[in-house]
TrEMBL record:
The lineage of its organism: Bacteria, Pseudomonadati, Bacteroidota, Cytophagia, Cytophagales. It holds the Pfam family PhyH. The keyword Transmembrane helix does not apply. This is Phytanoyl-CoA dioxygenase family protein. Gene3D superfamilies: q2cbj1_9rhob like domain.
Length: 292
């Protein structure tokens, strides 16, 4: 079985690819959507998947969550429960695009790629890494308030973007994503434990930031995504409902981002020396607007 990171294009027919410039237009975000993102730091409710794609990815999720999977060693991280509380379960992983064709090909989803490029200022886009966040019914754990870039300072400059997409319907009852609008203007804060206490980041904020800390829930139907700025404060509360909350995350950056460390950027991959561009097998170019 192959490491699917070897393949820098779709390897199945799960996400049909546009053939012409006109074909791409259906995926283009509006100026109103782009303005909202720039003002608030996020854009929610972007439809990314149809029912067949949701089902394929849920089946893939069941497969890759099995620690006996023959390609399990390709994960960069795999946490059956990243929560320190055994009564709250948060499954979290990085690297499943290397393991299953459905998670590999979702990176080449045209709706995702077009939106990512536009939100990065019509730039060429490279893949950074993927994540899974799964909260089981009744005892699903929280994700603490945080800024994504606080975990990514090993890459510069900051020109990153995150896309969260649900495989289950998500609302406040089962622990949906929550954003703090306009917090992307606060600058870089300290890095909390990702599955730690919800108030961890609050202790690192100024009084002004605390006064403007006004989270809004982001309920989303399965197959719909939310994009956010790398400094936007976000998190999600525990799931005590009767429904699971499964989601995947795609993280990208604008082409030209470089390494700021001589250490490996992700567990299990060769280091890229400090100052060199992120490219190659593990950081493929997934969209170049000049080529459509």
């Amino acid at each position: 079985m192959n490491d699917l990171a070897e393949f820098h294009a779709s390897i199945s027919d799960l996400f049909p690819q546009p053939k012409t410039k006109a074909d791409w237009e259906q995926y283009r975000l509006s100026e109103e959507q782009l303005d909202f993102f720039n003002e608030e730091g996020y854009l929610a409710d972007v439809k990314l998947l149809n029912e067949d794609q949701i089902e394929a990815l849920k089946n893939a999720l069941d497969e890759v969550m099995d620690p006996t999977h023959p390609l399990h060693s390709l994960f960069h991280e795999f946490h059956s429960n990243e929560s320190g509380d055994p009564n709250k379960v948060l499954f979290h992983s990085l690297g499943h695009w290397r393991i299953h064709p459905a998670f590999h090909d979702v990176i080449w989803n045209p709706a995702f790629r077009m939106a990512a490029s536009q939100l990065l200022g019509d730039r060429a886009v490279r893949f950074w890494h993927d994540q899974l966040f799964c909260k089981p019914a009744h005892h699903g754990g929280n994700v603490a308030w945080h800024q994504d870039y606080s975990y990514w300072t090993r890459t510069i400059e900051m020109q990153h973007l995150t896309c969260w997409c649900g495989l289950d319907d998500a609302n406040e009852e089962n622990g949906c994503l929550q954003y703090v609008p306009r917090s992307h203007r606060w600058g870089l804060l300290e890095k909390p434990a990702l599955a730690g206490e919800m108030d961890g980041l609050m202790q690192m904020m100024s009084e002004e930031q605390k006064a403007n800390f006004k989270p809004v829930p982001i309920p989303l139907k399965a197959g719909h995504g939310a994009f956010h700025h790398p400094l936007l404060v976000h998190g999600s509360f525990a799931n005590f409902s009767d429904r699971s909350r499964k989601a995947f995350v795609l993280n990208v950056f604008a082409d030209g981002t470089v390494s700021d460390t001589d250490e490996p950027l992700l567990e299990g991959i060769p280091a890229i020396k400090k100052g060199l561009k992120l490219e190659g097998k593990f950081f493929p170019l997934i969209f170049n607007p000049s080529e459509i």
